[in-house]
Amino acid sequence: MPRQFISHAISTVALIALGALSASAADNAAIKEKAAACAGCHGDNGISQTENIPSLAGQPDQFLQWQLVFFRAGSRKNDQMQPIVEEIGNEDIRSLGAYFSQLAPPKGPEDKDPDLSKKGAQVATGRRCASCHTDTYAGTKAVARLAGQREEYLVKALFDYKAGQRVGGGVAAMADVAYAMSEEEITAVAHYLAHLQ
Ligand code: HEC
Ligand code: HEC
């Protein structure tokens, strides 16, 4: 093969690689700017420090995307999220999902009531929460991560499903689960899940 051709081929490959690199660097910068608008409520690095606002870090990509779609479609209602989702398109939803899913998940705080956690673990086993949310409660696909999520938000979410205020995805999975739960069970299971690493 002539040398000239080889060096041309090499520089073409290098150019293509560089092009891809700078495009994704630009995408990264754009998505970081978008995500900065979320940090005011959802916290730095997607870890919420605010009551009733969930952490987003480490949630499955698909779960995040679906929730944004549900807010936009109005099937999930929240006064604070409503104006946010009116401003974002499908491309943003894809990149925000990818961005937050790749951040390190929240670590549960120190458990000051291990007895309540024990009770909560029994509830989770009895109601087979892990059969959908996975054994580590990291979630998968359209099923949420629960491990390390804010405790009072988990309680709120379960009561929202129980009351039929949050419908969720196509299958009425969570409505069925939560409807059958007592307040005591909800309190215990939320405490257990919030303290998982
Ligand atoms: C003004 C405060 C505020 C801002 C800014 C905000 N959010 Fe939210 N977000 C909330 C609240 C409050 C909830 C919980 C809603 C509920 O209780 O149902 C929420 C819920 C969510 C959920 C569902 C998470 C879950 O675990 O169910 C996603 C996903 C989400 N927000 C993404 C975003 C993204 C992405 C941005 C930035 C583009 C953003 N939010 C900006 C307040 C905010
Ligand atoms: C049949 C499958 C299934 C089972 C069993 C199940 N879940 Fe879920 N769960 C889901 C799905 C799917 C979602 C996302 C629903 C949506 O889009 O709102 C979800 C969402 C949740 C959320 C909302 C999380 C968030 O960040 O907004 C909580 C809290 C929750 N589940 C707790 C539980 C608990 C506790 C149990 C056991 C008592 C349980 N789930 C059992 C499928 C299941």
From TrEMBL:
<dbReference type="GO" id="GO:0042597">
    <property type="term" value="C:periplasmic space"/>
</dbReference>
<feature type="domain" description="Cytochrome c">
    <location>
        <begin position="115"/>
        <end position="197"/>
    </location>
</feature>
<feature type="binding site" description="covalent">
    <location>
        <position position="132"/>
    </location>
    <ligand>
        <name>heme c 2</name>
    </ligand>
</feature>
<feature type="domain" description="Cytochrome c">
    <location>
        <begin position="23"/>
        <end position="104"/>
    </location>
</feature>
<feature type="binding site" description="axial binding residue">
    <location>
        <position position="42"/>
    </location>
    <ligand>
        <name>heme c 1</name>
    </ligand>
</feature>
<feature type="binding site" description="covalent">
    <location>
        <position position="38"/>
    </location>
    <ligand>
        <name>heme c 1</name>
    </ligand>
</feature>
<feature type="binding site" description="covalent">
    <location>
        <position position="41"/>
    </location>
    <ligand>
        <name>heme c 1</name>
    </ligand>
</feature>
<keyword id="KW-0732">Signal</keyword>
<keyword id="KW-0479">Metal-binding</keyword>
<feature type="signal peptide">
    <location>
        <begin position="1"/>
        <end position="25"/>
    </location>
</feature>
<dbReference type="GO" id="GO:0009055">
    <property type="term" value="F:electron transfer activity"/>
</dbReference>
<feature type="binding site" description="covalent">
    <location>
        <position position="129"/>
    </location>
    <ligand>
        <name>heme c 2</name>
    </ligand>
</feature>
<feature type="binding site" description="axial binding residue">
    <location>
        <position position="133"/>
    </location>
    <ligand>
        <name>heme c 2</name>
    </ligand>
</feature>
<dbReference type="InterPro" id="IPR009056">
    <property type="entry name" value="Cyt_c-like_dom"/>
</dbReference>
<dbReference type="InterPro" id="IPR024167">
    <property type="entry name" value="Cytochrome_c4-like"/>
</dbReference>
<keyword id="KW-0349">Heme</keyword>
<keyword id="KW-0574">Periplasm</keyword>
<feature type="binding site" description="axial binding residue">
    <location>
        <position position="81"/>
    </location>
    <ligand>
        <name>heme c 1</name>
    </ligand>
</feature>
<dbReference type="GO" id="GO:0005506">
    <property type="term" value="F:iron ion binding"/>
</dbReference>
<dbReference type="GO" id="GO:0020037">
    <property type="term" value="F:heme binding"/>
</dbReference>
<feature type="binding site" description="axial binding residue">
    <location>
        <position position="174"/>
    </location>
    <ligand>
        <name>heme c 2</name>
    </ligand>
</feature>
<dbReference type="Pfam" id="PF00034">
    <property type="entry name" value="Cytochrom_C"/>
</dbReference>
<dbReference type="InterPro" id="IPR050597">
    <property type="entry name" value="Cytochrome_c_Oxidase_Subunit"/>
</dbReference>
<keyword id="KW-0408">Iron</keyword>
<keyword id="KW-0249">Electron transport</keyword>
<protein>
    <submittedName>
        <fullName>C-type cytochrome</fullName>
    </submittedName>
</protein>
<keyword id="KW-0813">Transport</keyword>
<dbReference type="InterPro" id="IPR036909">
    <property type="entry name" value="Cyt_c-like_dom_sf"/>
</dbReference>
